[in-house]
Amino acid sequence: MEESPVADPNKAGKQHEQKASNAPKSGERPDQGEAPAPDHYRPDPQAARDESNITPPDVANAKYTHPILAQPPEALTGIRLEERAKVAAGVTAVIKSMEFSWSEGGLNRGTRGLLKMNQKDGFDCSSCAWPDPDDHRSVAEFCENGAKATASDADDKAAGPEFFARHSLAQLSKMTDRDQNNAGRLTHPMVKRPGDNHYSPITWPDAFQVIADHLNALDSPNEAVFYTSGKVPNEPAFLFQLFAKQFGTNNLPDCSNMCHESSGAALSPTLGLGKGSVTLNDIYEAEVILIIGQNPGTNHPRMLSALQKAKRNGAKIISINPLIEAGLNHFKNPQDFMNPLKALGALMGDGTPITDLYLQVRVDGDMALLRGIMKHLFEAEDLNPGQVVDRAFIAEYTTGFESFEQNIRNTSWEDIEELNGISRAQLLEAANMLATKKKIITCWAMGVTQQRQGVQTIQEIVNLQLMKGAIGKPGAGTCPVRGHSNVQGDRTMGIWEQPTKAFQDALGKEFNFQAPYEHGYDTVEAIKAMYKGKTKVYFGLGGNLLAAGPDTEVIAEGMRKQKLTVFVGTKLNRGHLITGETSLLLPCFTHADVDMQKSGHQMTSCENSMGVVSQNKGVLIPLEGQMMSEVAIISGVAIATLGSRTNIADWVAMTENYDVIRDHISRVIPGFENFNEKLRRPGGFYLPNGPRDRKFTTPNGKANFTTTELQHYQRELEPDQLILMTVRSHDQFNTTIYDYNDRYRGVFNERRVLFMNPQDMAERGISAKDLIDITSHYKGETRTVEKFVAVPYDIPKGNVSAYFPEANPLVPISSVAKTSNTPTSKYVVVTVVPTLKTTGAPIEQRLAVEA
User: Fold this and answer.
1) Which of 10-19, 117-126, 435-444, 477-486 has the highest mean pLDDT?
2) Confidence of residue 98 (pLDDT cuts 50, 70, 90)
3) Cβ neighbourhood burial of 235 (10 Å; 0-12, 13-18, 19+)
4) What DSSP letter does each residue of 328-382 carry, written as one string?
C-alpha cells in the first residue's frame, strides 16, 4: 500500500524537481504500467430508459410565457459577412489571444496566467483536452481558445452581491450569453428563496444546511440529480461521485453523455476500452490521418501543431466534414513567429497545407463514406492479395471478420453515393492513400458522435483500423478527440450513471459503506425525469446544462419544477437563472487560482484525450471574496448532509490535503497506484491502455469486428425538409461565448445565423441576410425558433448549420443516437421560411409579459 505524503508534512503539496530529461522522448512508447485501465461502460445500454412521450414545448412563444428567458435573446447585433478564411491561426490568433487576455485579467495577471498554462509546473488549460508534449514545451504552450478560457478565468472583475442586488433574474436573462460571462467572477455564495426575483448573499454554513435539509427531506435519494461538467478536475470529481453514492444514488449525469458517450459505446465492445489508443507521438509518426466530424482550428487548435509536424514528416491527411473549415485547409503556426528562420515565411506565406483530400460529406453520411472506402480496399485486396488487408493481424487478434467483410462487399455503390454525397471516384482516391499504409490514425469528434448512427459509424472506424492492422503500434490507432479539459478523467473517477460492480465494491470497501448498484439517470434521462417531476433537487458541479443540453425549454421547465437547484460555478451563465423554488449559486476556484488549504498550496489533476494524467496547480491569487475550492464545497455539503452516516474526519482530512484524496483513489481505481508519486513526475503519467499494446480486454480477449446496419434516414425526408447540425463559433468554447464573431467562417457581430447552401436558399426565396424562422420536425412534433439570419455557405445541398446554444431548442429530447442515448444535435430535420412580421404570441400576451 502506498504511504501517503500526508504522513510527512514536508511532502504535502510539494513537487519533485522538474527535469525534462525524465519525460518520454518523441517516438518512444510510454511506460503505462501493467494494470488494466478502468473500463466503465455499461453492458446493457438500453436498460431502464424512459420511452414515454414528452409534450413538445412551445419554443417560439416561451419568451412571452416566462419573463426569465431560457433561450438567448433574439435581439440582433448587426451582422457583417466576409469571405471565409483559408488559413487558421497566424498573427491574428496571437493578437486576439493577447487582446482578450489583457482585457480580462490585466497585463500582469493575464500574462502570468498564459505563461504557466500547460506547463509541467503550472496548471492545466480549462479549455480542451488536447494533450501536451511529453518532452519539450514551448514558453507559450497554448492556443487562442486556451488563451480566451484562461483570460476568462483570470478576470479581475467581480460579480458579487452588489451586482446581483442591481439586477433581477429577469433582467440578467435579457443579457446576451457573452455579457453574462463578461460580468465578472462570482465571489460570494448567493441564494434565491421562494418568491424572490434576485439572488442575495448567504453564508457558507447556511448554504450547506439548505442543501442538507432538502436532500434529507427526499422520499428517495433517487429524487436528486448530481450533474458534472468536464472542467472539474479528478479530485473533486472523485469526491462528488463518492458523496452521491454515500447519499444513495447513481444519478450522475455528465457532459460526456452528450458528446463522446457514443465513442465509449463503440470502443468498449470492439477494443475493450472506451478511450482512444494513440499518443501524441503517434500523431507525429502516422502515414495517413483521417479527421472525421471535427473542426480542430476552432475546437482543438493545438492539434494543428501536431498535424503540421505530421505533415512535415510525410503524413497524408484526409478530412471528412460537411463544412469547409479553415483549420483543415492551411495552418500558420504562431510558434514559428518566435523562430527567426521561420518567422518571415510564416508571416508572408500561406502556412502549412493540412488536408490532402477533402471529402465534403453530407450530414449523417460518414458511415456510408467509410463503407465506400473499405469496399474499394477489398477490391484492391482482390487485385493484390495480402498487400492491402492485414490478414495476419486479423487472424491473431480479431473475431468477426468474415461477417464484416461480407457486409461491406454487399453494400451497393448506389446506396453509398446516395447517402454520403461523395462520388465513387473520390472515395477511390481516399482508398488509394490508405491501401499500402499501415500507420493509420482516425480522429473524430462530435460531428460523428451526435449522429443518429454515431455508435455504428465509430464501429466502422474501428473496422477500418482493424482490417489494416492499424492499432497497437507506433503511428496507428483510434483517436476520439475529447472536448472539455477533464471530461475523460471525470468518467475514470467514477462520474457515471451505470458504474460496474467492481468499481462500486472497491469504493465501498475503501470508505466502509455499501455503494448502490442500481443504475441512475444519464443526462437525457435526468432531463426527462426533472421535466416529469420525478426529481426534486438538481446539483450542478460546474457547466451549463441549460445551454449544453437538447430541447432547451424542456430543460428549463424541468429546472422550474425542482424544489432546490444548486449551481457551483466561476462565472454567471444563463443556466444559473432558470431555477427551482430555492436556488444556490456557489462560487468556486478555477484551474488558474491558487488553492491554499491547511497543508499548503494544493494541486489537482486532469486526464487528457490520450490518457495522460498531469498536475494542475494554480498560480493566480483569487479575487477578494468568499470563493471556495470545489473540494471544500463538496466536503461541506457531504458533512452537513450525511452527518453520522459518513466519516466526517475523513472528509476534513481530504479537504485539508488533497494528497489524502489521491491515496484513496490509488486504492480504488486500477492504474492509479502510487498516484501521489507519479503525479509529481514531470508531465505526469500515462494510464494503462490495453489496445495500445494489442491487449484487448473484451470478454473474448479479442478485438471485435462489427457488422452494422446502414440506415437510410434521408429517404424519410419531405421535399422541403433539410438536415441541421449544430456547431460552435470561433469565439466560443462549449457553452461559453467570448464574443459574437466567427472569423474563420466570415461571420462578424452575430450568432443567430443559419448557414445554407445557396441553391437551397434560392428554392425557398431566401436571400443573404434575410430573417428566417426554423422549425424542427420529429415524430409529428414541431419546435420553432425565430429571427435567424440566412448566410450562404459552402455546405452540401440539403444540409444547414447553426450555432449552439441558439439552435438547441430545436433538438428533440427524444431524438438520440442508438445505444449511447446521445442527443442527435448533428441530425435535426428542419424546414426554413422567411420570418413573418406577425409571428409570435398575441399582442395582449406580449404586452402583459413586457409589463
Assistant:
1) 435-444
2) low
3) buried
4) GTEEE-GGGGG-HHHHHHHHHS--EE--SEEE-PPTT-HHHHHHHHHHHHHHHHH
